[in-house]
Design brief:
There is one protein chain. This protein is mostly beta strands. It has helices at residues 3-14, 124-128, 310-313, 359-367; strands at 24-30, 41-43, 49-51, 57-60, 69-75, 79-80, 90-94, 100-107, 112-116, 144-147, 150-155, 158-163, 166-168, 179-184, 200-201, 220-230, 236-245, 251-260, 265-272, 285-289, 292-298, 302-307, 320-323, 349-352, 381-382, 391-399, 404-411, 422-427, 436-441, 447-453, 464-472, 487-494. Among the domains are: 17-109, Carboxypeptidase-like, regulatory domain (Immunoglobulin-like); 377-503, no CATH class. It contains 4 helices and 32 strands. Strands 20-21-22-23-24 form a 5-stranded antiparallel β-sheet, with no helix packed on it. Strand 21 (292-298) and strand 22 form a beta hairpin.
Length: 503
């Protein structure tokens, strides 16, 4: 039989089959709120996996299983389905084309997973099932399939978004020149952060996200340390640091750049010594101390600062680290020493041109005996178990509801996931002390790094906050999750939750 004849015969046979009818819809919802839960895996006994989209939907359309009773094992980081008598967590559903079933699942996380912000197919299954999808482009936007760590600020009454390495549809390698986009604030017609973020990407002629840092050097261009301040003429500017990276751990160069709103690109502002002990990094916050306005840099601890002055931000010597090292010291794990006063007490404080101390460096000093455990400044511990928590990346912001500085950060060398455990902690001052923390998001294996709290989305006087992070298999032995891998996922946290009492 000729191939064309065989194809025609198959199509005729299928013409009246339920195979061609609408998919079977499975809606996985939070048992408490009834809201659809993204990133929940349903797996058949044939080991075929499906993941809920940002609406919590799966459009199940398996030709051989139409109308059959199908068992789905159910799993999702931070969520749980009840076990049966054999300890199996799953449900049997009759996969009738055009019909729907609801599966209710219990949330274990303190924070609530809401939706995916970037990547392809955010509302794929919802669209296939003809359900509401709040985004203007629910299937693909800017031809982007993956994006690393987020920077976001409100600039000229819009939200400006920037990401690191960005994956494309047309080739395994995307671009590494800092992708960018804008969105409208909820108060100016943008989506409520409960529903999503409508991104308008800066794109090239093909429609793919384009670099916003068009520097000639080879290497990845990573942007952070975004600051807003007047220049020497009084014109308000947006400034950030660009680190040019040869690899994940090797920096070729760093410089300060200023945003050109008309061109939609970053322009060079000033060179910055790549070996300087301090630089504008992470997610800065503005703090006024004794009438002087500073930028405090959080990575995740606010342990570096500079006066919010046009000349000062361009002068590496003007930066101060919160540290116990002698003034002028750079960090060297093998030789670093601690400054002590005449009585032998450790001198913690702001010191110009001196390397700041974070959790990892503090731990290294304790391990070498330079610092006693009782002399440490950070000493963050799990409020439940009392064990030490080593924070890796995150952000800090003043919160009116808590009347404290609150931090959302991921743990390094954590368990069960290496970089996927996310914590909440708070302190009366940006320097700390930061003492006790509560885990608010967990992952079995996957990473969820560089979380950022978007204060411009805060609701009810700061009681409700929103944060996102990079969900990926990187730095783990997990398998990539289709569509979700290497993308940004949004969470919501209610700061009135009694589990967040850290006293």
């Amino acid at each position: 039989m000729r191939l064309s004849t065989l194809r025609s015969t198959i199509l005729l046979c299928l013409a009246g089959s339920p195979i061609l009818a609408a998919p079977f819809g499975i809606h996985v919802v939070d048992e408490t709120t009834g809201r659809g839960v993204p990133l929940i895996e349903l797996k058949t006994t044939a080991s075929v996996s499906y993941w809920t989209d940002s609406g919590g939907w799966i459009a199940f359309d398996e030709p051989g299983l139409a109308g059959q009773e199908v068992y789905f094992a159910i799993a999702g980081d931070g969520y749980e389905y009840p076990a049966d008598g054999f300890g199996l967590r799953g449900v049997r559903l009759k996969a009738e084309p055009g019909k729907e079933a609801e599966v209710r699942i219990k949330r274990l996380n303190v924070a609530e997973r809401l939706y995916r912000i970037t990547g392809e197919g955010i509302y794929r299954d919802s669209v296939l099932l003809e359900k509401e999808a709040p985004l203007k482009q629910p299937l693909i936007n800017g031809l982007v399939v993956g994006q690393d760590s987020t920077q976001a600020v409100v600039w000229n009454d819009r939200v400006l978004w920037f990401w690191g390495d960005t994956g494309r549809v047309a080739y395994p390698l995307g671009h590494f020149g800092t992708a960018g986009a804008t969105s409208e604030l909820p108060s100016r017609g943008g989506l409520d952060p409960d529903r999503g973020v409508d991104l308008a990407y800066f794109v090239d002629a093909s429609g793919f996200s384009r670099p916003t840092i068009p520097t000639p050097e080879q290497g990845m261009k990573w942007l952070d340390g975004l600051m807003m301040l007047p220049d020497a003429s009084g014109t308000r500017r947006l400034v950030g640091r660009c680190a040019v990276m040869k690899s994940l751990g090797e920096m070729i160069d760093q410089r300060l750049m200023q945003w050109d709103d008309e061109a939609g690109r970053w322009q060079d502002l000033a060179a910055f010594d790549k070996d300087a002990p301090l630089a504008p990094v992470g997610h800065p916050i503005e703090v006024t101390v004794e009438g002087v306005r500073y930028f405090y840099f959080t990575a995740p601890y606010p342990n570096a600062r500079v006066r919010a002055d046009w000349a000062a931000i361009q002068d590496p010597a003007a930066y101060e680290g919160y540290t116990c090292l002698p003034p002028g010291s750079r960090w060297d794990e093998a030789t670093a020493t601690v400054e002590r006063d005449r009585d032998g007490k450790v001198v913690w404080g702001w010191k110009s041109g001196t390397a700041a101390i974070d959790g990892a460096r503090e731990g290294a000093l304790i391990k070498r005996g330079e610092l006693k455990p009782e002399e440490r400044w950070l000493g963050l511990t799990d409020v439940e178990t009392g064990r030490d928590v080593l924070l890796w990346g995150g952000s800090v912001a003043w919160n009116d509801y808590r009347k404290k500085y609150v931090m959302i950060a991921n743990e390094g060398f954590g368990k069960p996931s290496f970089l996927g455990e996310v914590w909440f902690t708070e302190a009366p001052r940006p320097e700390g002390p930061w003492r006790r923390a509560r885990r608010i998001v967990t992952h079995a294996k996957h990473s969820f790094y560089n979380p950022i709290h978007h204060t411009f989305f805060d609701q009810e006087g700061g009681r409700i906050i929103y944060f996102e992070g990079t969900y990926t298999d990187t730095f783990s032995d997990a398998q990539p999750t289709p569509r979700y891998n290497y993308n940004q996922v949004m969470y919501r946290l209610d700061l009135s939750d009694p589990r967040l009492v850290l006293e």
